[in-house]
Amino acid sequence: MAQQEQKRKEEEREKQIQGFLMCERYGEALDTARLAIEEFPKQDAFRKLATEAEALKKEQDDRERARNEMQRRVREINSKINQDKITDAIDLAQQTMESMGPDPNVTQLLQGAEEKRKKKDEAEKKVSAVQALVNKGDHAGATQMFNEVMATQIFQASDPRMQELKGKITNLASGQQPAATQMYSAAKTVVQKPAGTAKKDKTAAAKPASDLTQVSESAQNIPAAGFSATKVIGTGEKPGAKKDGAVPKRSDSVGKETGARRAEGVAPDATVIAGPAARQAAAATGMPAEPRPSGSVAAAAPRVTAPQPKPGSDVMGQILPILRRPPVLAGIGLVVVVLLAVALWPHKTNGGTPSDSDLKLKQQAAELWQNRQFDQSEQIWQGLAKSKSPLQADAVNQVNQIEQKRAEEQKRFDDAEALLKDKKDYAGAQQAFQDVIQMNLWHFDDATRDLETAKAGLSATDVQKQEQDHFNQGVTLYLAKDFEKARKEFRAVMDLNIAGSTLKPQAENYLGKIRQSGTDQKTYDTAVQALKDERWTEAKEQFQEVINRKGAQSADAKKQLPVVEKALQTVGTFEDNLKASSFRAAKAAADSAQQWSKTHETLLKELHAAEQQQFDQIKNNAQAAEAKSDTAAIQRAQDELHVFGGRAEDPALAAPMRELEKHLADAYSKATEKNGDKAAFETAQQHFELAKQRKDIETLSHGVSQEFQRIANGSGIYRDQAALYVKTTIPNAIQALTQTAGKLVLPALSCGPGRGAAEAPSVAGSVSCAKLDASAPLEWVGTPMVDFPDVANKPGKLPYSFTVMVTIEPGGNVKIDKEGDADKDFFKKVKDASKHWKTTAPKSDGKPVTVRFPLTITFQR
Predict the structure, then answer these.
(1) pLDDT tens digits for 61-103?
(2) Would you give the end-to-end CA distance of the chain in angstroms?
(3) Spatial separation of the C-alpha atoms in residues 260 and 255, rounded to whole Å
(4) Which residues contact 250 (CB under 8 A, 6 or more apart)?
(5) Angstrom distance (rounded) from CA 213 to CA 205
(6) Cα 661 to Cα 841: distance, rounded to the nearest angstrom
(7) C-alpha to C-alpha distance for 556 and 575, rounded to whole angstroms
(8) 726-773 pLDDT, tens digit each
(9) Which residues pair with 852 in a beta bridge?
(10) How far is CA 49 from the centre of its chain?
């Protein structure tokens, strides 16, 4: 009773462990198995179960760690992309895919990062283009390009560069031109202007503000932090000569000096412009800015009253030293350059200066466009295009550009919609919607919304495809009984965990089937029985299945598998030799299997049956040749018997072979006496004439030619005449039949022992004609022909002969190489035609070989 109770407990414990394994609760299975080992130390089954559970738990833990690591890397890649560390994100994604394999989330992030880097590079180029357009004063072009940059969403509106560009574009819209103002950081002091210039100064002061820039009173309150010597020209102003003695521009080196340097002399009423640093300094001091008179700008330095010169002083003596100073001369040069640049600045004119109302409309159109009110902007441009104002041409151009942009955007948007909704091409739709978004026009919001739909569709498609691939591979492996690999594929389907998946339940069902497909012990026992019965193929499959499943009997199966593989290798070697009729080699292979009695007996039976079958075939051929008194056929039978005798190993066939050999010799003598050389030659002539009358080129080139070839190979009195037929008469007859078709028929081959064929050096194991078997003459299969080249029609070209090197492979395939200096046109025709030529298999000692020999071809009509 105690033993029965212990056995019952053992069975219950084993069922419990198996249940844990089936539910993939490998940790619990391992703990239970270890407890069972302590409780039943004499049972090896629990040790095997513990080993299996430990291996499965390790695999499960590795898979979980890999999944966690993949998720961590996905988060890190996404974080780098959000931090605009695009290069680091791309590197990490590529490293992840190389080290951990493909993953749809990583692939999607990598594609997004690469696309973002590409967009960023393009946006940087556009930023440079915006800056260039601003520098050129092209407000419309700069506005459009700036909108395209912002539409990429690469740069934020708070970006200092974008704010700076937007400010510059706004200045262009208000009519201000970018000034080439030189800023100075050093404080400047204004000294008194010589008295001789007072009259001119008064005259200059009386001029309108639109012509000259005056120093505002408020400028006197600005600390001397910097100034600009450039005159600001407003809208509608004309450049002219400056008459108020402007301060000349300093050199760069002067601009970099500190305020400690001594002040340069400047006229007290000189025109100066306060730079940004000066205005900021003024604001910092808390000094109020006075209202600025129209047409004046702020001065960068306070007005300082200099001591008045004494009456009667030399005015020129005071002016000339000032003018000779380098800063003054540089300033004068700068003023001249600025005035020339303004005067020569290219501007469109169309019958006069635009009116203030037209300019306001133009500015309004540009602002509406910048604010994405495209239709309202277009309406204003259309109105200007219909007017007869100087802006008409520019307005017509703007309207045309707007219409072109609308058409281009609409077409691209329609293409994107078709790819998304009709073709379900989410990748193509994503790219198309991104193009529309980059245009930043009417369909910007629609494209942004549909882009998210396309991205979601693409992501879902990628994951679903991956799930389908794993499932299909798992089914294939399951049907091939590779349960271990199939289980991994179905497990991958489960790990993807796609919501609403129809494949997940099926994968789970397959996993259950694999667990219940049978125990390793049963499979192992079946394999052992197949091994005992010497059913090698079945035994190998069963042992391999046990090994692949890594079960308890896996180690024992690995020990048995080499024995099975050695037996299968021996059988394979035997069968290969038997197919090649290498009976003695096959016998050696069969003898090496003597340790497996059933296999050895089976192989010997197959060997003797094959030898007997081949001998019977030779005997039947000999009897047929004897009945026809066909001496050539009798000779072939004799040759076949001779070759067979050199390969056969069955002692039981020795006596029958000797008897058949003697019988064939008698039969040949009788056939020769009966037919005679003359009769054979006359028969061949009759066949020649009959084929010629029927215009049967095939019979002439093959059957008739072979008849004369056999006579020529003999030793009779008609040997030479038969050889003449082979080399000349038959080829000429065939040539006459094919003359109208523009083809040349090759003569019969004379490659064999004693046929006088020229020798050729051996290449890559090839043999010469003299080493071929006499019993297997080399002959053309079919009628080898060559087309005449076009140059053959030229006078004096025919007859033309040249020699080629012919290589015939063991299968009868023909290859041609040039030998000597041959005409390229004739050789090309021969080379092309040789691809369709074929011969009987060349043999040496009964084995197929490669033969190489020269062949002379003569083209003649």
Answers:
(1) 888 888 888 888 888 998 888 787 888 999 999 899 888 888 8
(2) 110
(3) 12
(4) 182, 184, 229, 327, 330, 331
(5) 9
(6) 25
(7) 30
(8) 888 988 887 777 765 577 878 778 888 876 667 777 777 888 888 888
(9) 807
(10) 48
Instruction: Assess contact for 335 and 249: CB atoms under 8 A.
Output: yes
Q: Distance (Å, rounded) from C-alpha 658 to C-alpha 662?
A: 6
Question: How far is 233 from 213, CA to CA, in rounded Å?
Answer: 9
**What is the C-alpha to C-alpha distance for residues 537 and 544, in angstroms, rounded to an integer?**
11
Location of structure tokens 């005015």: 315
DSSP string for residues in 421-460: IIS--HHHHHHHHHHHHHHTSTTHHHHHHHHHHHHHHHHH
Take residue 102 and report the two structure tokens written for it. 């493909």
Q: How far is CA 7 from CA 13, 21, 29, 213, in A?
A: 10, 21, 19, 115
Q: Is 846 left (phi over 0), alpha (psi -120 to 50) or beta?
A: left
| Rounded CA separation 300/101 (Å) | 67
In one-letter notation, the amino acid at residue 28 is E
- Nearest-Å Rg of the Cα atoms of the chain is 52
Asked if residues 785 and 746 have their Cβ atoms less than 8 Å apart, the reply is yes
CB 385 within 8 A of CB 399: yes
Name every residue whose Cβ is closer than 8 Å to that of residue 490 and which is 6 or more positions away in sequence: 470, 471, 474, 507, 508, 510, 511, 514
Cα distance between residue 26 and residue 37, in whole Å: 16
- Render 758-809 in DSSP notation, one character per residue: PP----TT-B-GGGS-TTS---BSS--EEEPPGGGGSTT--SEEEEEEEEE-
Structure tokens at 755: 């046929």
Which pLDDT belongs to residue 573?
92
CB atoms within 10 A of CB 56: 17
Q: Looking up tokens 């007005």, which residue turns up?
A: 303
Long-range contacts of 646-649 (CB under 8 A, 24+ apart): 646/846, 647/581, 647/582, 647/583, 647/584, 647/846, 648/583, 648/584, 648/611, 648/615, 649/583, 649/584, 649/587, 649/607, 649/611
Q: How far apart are CA 358 and CA 527, in angstroms?
A: 98
